[in-house]
Amino acid sequence: MTRITIAIDGPSGAGKSTTARGLAASLGYTYIDTGAMYRAIAWKGLQAGVPIEDEEATTRLAESTTITFEPAADGSQRVLVDGQNVTDAIRAPDVTRLSSPVSAIPGVRRVLVAQQQTMGAGGGVVMEGRDIGTVVFPHAELKVFLTASDEERAHRRCKEMKARGLDVKEEEVLEQQRERDTRDSSRANSPLTPAPDSIQLVSDKLNLEQVIERILELARQRSA
Questions:
Q1: Is 171 left (phi over 0), alpha (psi -120 to 50) or beta?
Q2: What are the pLDDT digits (tens) for 77-117?
Q3: Per the structure, how many domains does the chain have?
Q4: CATH number, domain at 196?
Q5: CB of 148 within 8 A of CB of 14?
Q6: Could you give the residue ranges of the DSSP H alpha helices within 7-105?
Q7: Cα separation, 218 vs 201, whole angstroms
């Protein structure tokens, strides 16, 4: 079987990360969470006191940052920024609020897209984000646009955040999510939009195993 490139795009809360991680494990592929890379730059900018409005400084920050992924003992994935484990830190609410504006900075996207293309060169990779099938790997053998209703996505995100001990309200998560959706889909550089040749999958009434199995079947067809 040919080791293909699988691009999974979609809005926040659609289940991209858990789906891509499970899919990669099933196929023996490398999993790359590109959203974590933009979160990493947002986190480092906060630590360094670099204002998000200063696009040149934020771009220089991205150029001087080394982001790596490594497997954890429990089967999950750790995110390292310049060798420091920031897996949990980049999921904090203040980082989440900044990650979308950071991802809209052309210079930052240029830097990170180049890194993502290097990471995924050669196939055998499941990469998820918002512009994988349209910008990062427009020639990926399999492109999936994974989504869910606004309410379902907010519910999942709220549940996830509460599991990490954060005190959040679903109504606030929904409002922030809609604001982010608007920014991501309307930005001039690499807007969130399905690739014309992507398979669109709505996950509201599907559990994780069902979503993974549907994409696995598509992957088997494309790699045969």
A1: alpha
A2: 899 999 999 999 999 989 988 998 999 899 999 999 999 99
A3: 1
A4: 3.40.50.300
A5: yes
A6: 16-27, 34-48, 55-63, 93-103
A7: 12
Phi/psi-derived region of residue 122, left when phi > 0, alpha when psi is between -120 and 50, beta in every other case: left
What pTM, to 2 d.p., does this model score? Answer: 0.85
Distance between CA atoms of residues 110 and 94, nearest Å: 24
| Residue 57's pLDDT band (cuts 50, 70, 90) | very high
- State percent of the chain over pLDDT 90: 71
Is 221 within a domain?
no
Query: Closest Cα to residue 66, out of 50, 81, 45, 51?
Result: 81
Listed in sequence order, the residues at least 6 apart from 183 whose beta carbon sits closer than 8 Å to its beta carbon are 100, 101, 104
Range of the domain at 128: 5-212
3-state secondary structure of 113: helix
Distance CA 107, CA 50 (A): 15
Rounded CA-CA distance 221/224 in Å is 5
Q: Are 184 and 102 in contact (CB under 8 A)?
A: no
* pLDDT tens-place string over residues 28-41: 999 999 999 999 99
Query: Residue written as tokens 């947002």?
Result: 42
